[in-house]
Records
---
Amino acid sequence: MYEKPLPVIDPESQPYWDALKQHRLLLKRCRACQRCHHYPRELCPHCHSDDVEWSQAAGGGHIYSYTVARRPAGPSFKPDTPYVVALVELDEGVRMMTNIVTLDVESLRIGQRVAVQFDDVTPDVTLPKFRPA
Ligand SMILES: [Zn+2]
């Protein structure tokens, strides 16, 4: 049984979560300014246009920042320690909070290339995580 907190899925983010279940990572892209954003919003945070569409991310990026959690955020995280909480910058230009999955947390570096992987944590929820590329 999965005991960690799960995301609250609302109608606006439903397509994002549906795609993750199919192991696809979607971003919102603005047709007015061509930039992507994340998390998904109805209005582009760069130019405030509502002309936004879903587009599939290629899945590559780099570690923008990270920390190694050696003390768990709660009891359900204890078996995972040490684990890596990271801000990954995708090649599409957006940053997302995620985990880096690695057996060697000491080997990670800022700027390191990473690739998305999909963690099916429940029948309804798949989380996007990253591994060294
Ligand atoms: Zn825009």
---
Amino acid sequence: MAKDYYNLLGVSKNSSEEEIKKAFRALAHQYHPDKKSGNEAKFKELNEAYQVLSDPEKRKKYDQFGASFEQMGGWESATGGAHWEDIMNAFRQGGARAGGNFGGNEFAGFSFDIGDIFSEFFGGRASSSSMSGASRSRSSRGRDIEIAIEIEFLEAVTGAERTLELKKFDKCSRCKGNRAEPGTPLITCKECGGRGEVSQTRQTILGVMRTSGQCGKCGGEGVFPKLNCKHCNGDGMERVAKKIKVRIPAGIQNGEAIRISGEGEISENAARYGDLYVGVRIRSHHKFKRDGDDIHSSELISFTQAALGDKIRADTAHGKVELKIPAGTESGTAFKLKHKGVPSLRGGGEGDHYVTVKIVVPERVSAKAKKLLNELKEEGL
Ligand SMILES: [Zn+2]
Ligand SMILES: [Zn+2]
């Protein structure tokens, strides 16, 4: 089941950043695991929701495609995992001891500002990631890749598959990402003793914080290659072309994106891949119009068919379907063909197809028809 982050935080979809922040603070305060009333699972969930909704870009993606992102692997790895660990570590090492409890302002600053506090400690290391926690280099993900594709109207109804060719940074094929020339050792960093972290104590708005930060010398790796890999020059990565098959689920809406977990670029330390987002644009159809999971179209009928009733064959996304036109049908009448719409992406059946009939009045009629029509006219029709 998809998680409703708005629901979790008890805010509406239109809430401002400020309202979301406020709601999160209140709930996080209530459920903080160090408190008696605490609930770590709940707290973690709240944090996950907040990490998405407080980030305009992630929030946009979530709004666009929340439930289906879940289906394709979930937000969990994008928002929880290591990032979560960073926050908890910072808590336990710094804030928790400094503040004692999280009843006041100590708490208020913790999650949203922790990145800023760390970057204040350890300087502005170039990073495209918003995460600048102490153990960033070990836990950071590679860059996400976003691409857009176009599919046909009917492909959105039946589902489709595409093979995409991506150019991206992947693990170096020679050193497998460990940066050293094959057969040569990695040597331990003396600066941090191989831990990849150095400790610091600082006075901050949260009180005295003892915290560990990434070792600047080894970039948090704890080790150096004795001899850099000749292929990647010690970067651990290389640019590759990769083909990837993407399944587009039946029922996808125009503008939605599919997230493929782990198909983004590798992180700088070759530890974790980012994700691939495939934005889908649906081409319009000459006959069908979509409205959510319903499809609308129109069919032309003659005025005699309308007057006397008939059976016609109406086009649907699932092929032609027989449609009974009752006698005395007016132009513009819509008929519902149940379950002939688009399968629901969220599960639970499919939409319907509505056929609107339009009566065509002939521009020219034969002499015989004219005679008959004149008789009808005399009948008062
Ligand atoms: Zn290499
Ligand atoms: Zn080091």
